[in-house]
Each structure stands twice: as structure tokens, then as C-alpha cells.
């Protein structure tokens, strides 16, 4: 992964280098360390603020090249709005906004992590560092030519000046691993489908072994033996064989039931015989965003040595319209023994998940399972790209996810499940069919998945609108967003890790 921004911490007393970044509130008030760093440039700031109508609103910036009176190459003032109204996720935003202002000339950067009323807490300073790295990430591996106006990639060495260097470093160590996890997920989603097919995806997931994760790759033979007929039915239309990857991180007490995360990994989805239209079909390389999140999450948890037992499981296939592809009308037998009539081969994600969810339920008896899947276009009709759809059979788990979603900014909105929807997926020939018609399409998909969790506390996140192609944000300019890594890492940290 290309790291455009390197983040370190220094004391307030260290002399600023290169680009200087300071924060002010909506009364244009600066803290003591910032005032000291600004020195004689304070007056320049005042005049520049008036000239550009900068009012210190949260996330607004004032950019002054070669400011008079100080050594800084450039001065960037970032507004924080009303200090009393700042939320945790705003610090990520401040870091992201800062990174958005940097360019190839910003070799060295000093950020004074201070609010008008005093130094930022270690967690807040660390969040600034995370925001910087998240925003600076870009996927340009396949660009061999630079555009005229592109004078090179950003390679900034950022020093965040803080009151307590040791505390900030301690807070940033785990946070940095989480950022790595987000970037791994983004990278997987952004990769083209000729490069990232199931076997290659499994190989990349296997790199988690370096962190002490136990990785098991089930090939077609192994999955056939297990009876994963639903997943294999999808995979059979591609020359690229499918895989299921089981990743285990055992950081908790021996014998403690694990928490489990399951991801849909359709490396490319043509729709199969029920083929999609040509418009935007290229986006279907991102139909593995759920699996990408699970790999990124496992990285974060293992790298920061989370004190918990975790299972990550991903079903990897390519959904192609080959001569051997499954047909509408086919009936497949899932690992659970339940039979499924295929109505539309483009409703393949639930078929993949059905077998992986069942496998995880039976093999690991987890405390809970969360699955992530770019499952339905219908979830975008309902929620747009701001929230992932959440479906759950467990109020406690759902409430926790909602709360953490609001804190981290990776938000979820709970949608209903209910026996009333079952009739939409009744089949006249098999135990169920794989689509429930146009109405409530995300709900009937979730209702289908629920039949494969056997009562395990479970939440399904439909991330079709959030994992890829979502509008750019202050902390993400990448097509693959890495959605879910921060949300689920925090869920684990806050509720399921042994206290240190
Ligand atoms: Mn599909
Ligand atoms: Zn799909």
C-alpha cells in the first residue's frame, strides 16, 4: 500500500517545519501554542481571514502561502467551529481536511494539535493523524502517465505537535493499524477484476498470517465435500474457481466463543445468465466490498492485538454467464440442507452468504455474526449512500451498531425483518426462492439470509451504497471506501474485548 502521509508526534515546544497547520474556532480564537507558532504572522492571518471571509466554521480552511513574519512555507488555518460542539469524529474530519490541502510540495508538515481552550486529548490528536492518512490515500497503481497539472504524488512527513507525546503515540498505535485495515479494504475494492479474482483474493487474505492470523482456504473440492451447493452454484459459471477463506484471530481467552464477521466476495458480478445491462457494469468489480471489509478488519484486530477471539469468513466467487453457468429454474441444495430455487441468477450474493453463514454458525458457534454485503440496489433506493442498511434478529447488537455508527461516522439504519415477508420468497418447487420480487427487495434478501443463521445473534449490513462509489467525503476520496472497518473494529473494542 502506498502511504502518502507519514505521521509522527512531537512536543509543542519543537520548532515547526514546512507547512504549518493550526486550528481556530468560529471567533477566530487560537490556543497558546498556535499563537506562539504564528508569532508575527498573527496579523497576516487576521487580514487574510477578513479578505477571504473565513469565519472558522468547522472544516473550513484558510490557506496562506509564504506567510510574512514566520518561517513556514505555508500556513493552513483549519476552523473547528464552536469548540464545545466538537464530536469525536470531527477530529478525523479536521485531519482529512488538512490532507486535502496538502500537495506534492508539502514535504514536511507541522500540525499543532490544539483547540482554543487547550491541547487536544491524545485520542483526538491520534484521530487527526488517522484522518490525514485516510484522506491522503489514493489508488493510482495503474496510471503510468501523469497529467500536466499533476506535479507528483503527495509524500508528506507530518509532525503532530501535542502536549503529551507519549500519550499521543500510544493512542495512535492502534488507530494506525485500523487505518491500515481501511486502506487494505479500499485497495481490494479498487483493484480491477482481472487482477483480483477469487484465488488471488484468497492469496491476499492469506497475508494476514504474518500477523498471526490463522488462515484456512477452502477450495472447490473442500466446499463440495461440505455441501456448499448454494455458493458453488454461483461459482460454476466462471473459469475462475471459487474459494471460502476462514481467518481466525485468537487474542481472547482460550475456549471463549468467538465473534464472527462474514463478507460477500463476488469478485465480479455480471448477473450471470440473468445478465445485467452494460451501463456501469464495471462497478461490479466492487461486489466484494463486504469481504474486503472483513479482511481489513481482521488486519486491524490482529495488528493491534485485540483481546478477543474472532472469526472472519469470506465467500469468494465470480458470477459469470458461461455455458456451465446456473440457470433460472435450477434448484440447489445449500450446506444447511435447505433447497433454493434460482429465479434470478443476479441475486447471487445471498446464495454465497447462505453457505458461509451456515458454516460459521455450525463450526464456531459464535457469540454473534455480522455479515457485510453489497447485496441489493434496493438499499440505495431506500437509504442513498449515507447509511448502510442494517437487519438484525438481536436488539442489543443492533443498538450497539447504531451507536457506534453514529460515533465513527460509519452509520447504519435499522430496517425491518418479519415473518410477513416470508411469503415473498416461498417457492412452489423448493424450500425457498432466491428473489422476493421488487417490493422490499433488501428486506426479503435479509429474510433469506436469516434462514441460514439458525438463531445465532446476527446483523446483516447491506453496504451496496456505502462500500463503493459513494460520494467523496472529508476522509475519503477513494472509490472503494473501506466502509465498515472502523465501525466493526470499534464495536469489538468497546463491547467484546477483555478489559486490559
Ligand atoms: Mn448480483
Ligand atoms: Zn452481487
Ligand kinds: manganese (II) ion, zinc ion
Tally the helices: 14
Principal-axis shape: elongated
What share of residues are in beta strands?
Answer: 15-25%
The chain-level structural class is alpha/beta
Strand order of the largest sheet: 9-10-12-11-15-19-16-17
Features:
500 residues; alpha/beta; six-stranded mixed β-sheet; 14 helices; binds manganese (II) ion; binds zinc ion
What does it look like?
The longest helix is centred in the middle third of the chain and has 26 residues, at 165-190. The strands form 4 sheets. An 8-stranded mixed beta sheet has the order 9-10-12-11-15-19-16-17, with helices on both faces. A 6-stranded mixed beta sheet has the order 1-8-5-2-4-3, with helices on both faces. It has 14 helices and 19 strands. α12 (395-408) links the parallel β16 and β17 (412-414). With 500 residues, the chain is an alpha/beta fold. The structure holds manganese (II) ion (MN) and zinc ion. Manganese (II) ion is lined by residues 269, 271, 346, 348.
Amino acid at each position: 500500500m502506498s502511504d502518502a502521509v507519514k505521521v509522527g508526534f512531537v512536543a509543542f515546544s519543537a520548532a515547526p517545519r514546512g507547512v504549518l497547520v493550526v486550528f481556530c474556532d468560529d471567533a477566530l480564537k487560537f490556543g497558546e501554542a498556535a499563537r506562539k507558532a504564528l508569532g508575527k504572522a498573527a496579523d497576516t492571518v487576521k487580514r487574510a481571514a477578513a479578505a477571504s471571509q473565513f469565519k472558522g466554521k468547522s472544516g473550513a480552511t484558510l490557506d496562506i502561502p509564504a506567510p510574512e513574519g514566520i518561517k513556514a512555507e505555508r500556513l493552513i488555518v483549519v476552523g473547528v467551529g464552536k469548540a464545545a460542539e466538537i464530536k469525536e469524529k470531527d477530529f478525523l474530519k479536521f485531519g482529512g481536511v488538512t490532507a486535502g490541502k496538502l500537495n506534492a510540495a508539502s514535504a514536511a508538515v507541522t500540525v499543532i494539535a490544539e483547540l482554543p481552550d487547550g491541547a487536544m486529548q491524545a485520542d483526538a490528536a491520534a484521530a487527526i493523524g488517522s484522518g490525514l492518512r485516510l484522506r491522503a490515500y489514493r489508488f493510482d497503481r495503474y496510471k503510468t502517465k501523469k497529467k500536466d497539472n499533476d506535479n507528483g504524488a503527495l509524500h508528506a512527513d507530518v509532525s503532530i505537535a501535542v502536549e503529551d507525546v507519549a500519550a499521543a503515540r500510544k493512542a495512535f498505535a492502534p488507530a494506525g493499524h485500523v487505518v491500515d485495515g481501511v486502506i487494505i479494504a479500499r485497495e481490494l475494492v479498487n483493484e480491477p477484476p482481472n487482477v483480483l479474482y477469487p484465488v488471488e483474493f484468497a492469496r491476499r487474505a492469506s497475508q494476514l498470517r504474518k500477523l498471526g492470523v490463522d488462515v484456512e482456504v477452502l477450495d472447490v473440492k473442500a466446499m463440495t465435500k461440505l455441501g456448499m451447493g448454494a455458493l458453488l452454484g454461483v461459482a460454476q459459471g466462471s473459469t475462475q474457481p471459487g474459494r471460502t477463506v476462514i481467518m481466525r484471530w485468537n487474542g481472547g481467552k482460550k475456549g471463549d466463543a468467538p465473534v464472527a464477521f462474514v463478507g460477500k466476495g463476488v469478485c465480479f458480478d455480471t448477473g450471470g445468465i440473468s445478465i445485467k445491462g452494460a451501463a456501469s457494469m464495471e462497478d461490479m468489480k466492487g461486489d466484494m466490498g463486504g469481504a474486503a471489509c472483513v479482511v481489513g478488519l481482521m488486519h486491524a484486530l490482529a495488528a493491534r492485538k485485540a483481546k478477543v477471539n474472532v472469526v472472519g469468513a469470506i465467500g469468494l466467487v465470480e458470477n459469470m454467464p458461461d455455458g456451465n453457468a446456473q440457470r433460472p429454474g435450477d434448484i440447489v441444495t445449500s450446506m444447511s440442507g435447505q433447497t433454493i430455487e434460482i429465479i434470478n441468477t443476479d441475486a447471487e450474493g445471498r446464495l454465497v452468504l447462505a453457505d458461509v453463514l451456515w458454516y460459521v454458525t455450525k463450526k464456531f458457534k459464535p457469540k454473534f455474526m455480522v455479515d457485510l454485503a453489497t447485496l441489493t440496489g434496493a438499499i440505495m433506493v431506500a437509504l442513498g449512500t449515507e447509511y448502510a442498511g442494517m437487519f438484525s434478529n438481536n436488539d442489543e447488537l443492533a443498538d450497539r451498531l447504531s451507536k457506534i455508527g453514529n460515533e465513527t461516522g460509519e452509520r447504519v439504519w435499522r430496517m425491518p425483518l418479519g415473518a410477513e415477508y416470508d411469503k415473498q420468497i416461498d417457492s412452489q418447487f423448493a424450500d425457498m426462492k432466491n428473489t422476493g420480487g421488487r417490493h422490499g427487495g433488501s428486506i426479503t434478501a435479509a429474510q433469506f439470509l436469516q434462514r441460514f443463521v439458525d438463531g445465532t445473534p446476527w446483523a446483516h449490513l447491506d453496504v451496496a451504497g456505502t462500500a463503493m462509489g459513494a460520494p467523496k467525503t472529508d476522509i475519503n476520496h477513494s472509490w472503494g471506501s473501506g466502509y465498515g472497518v472502523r465501525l466493526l473494529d470499534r464495536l469489538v473494542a468497546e463491547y467484546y474485548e477483555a478489559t486490559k
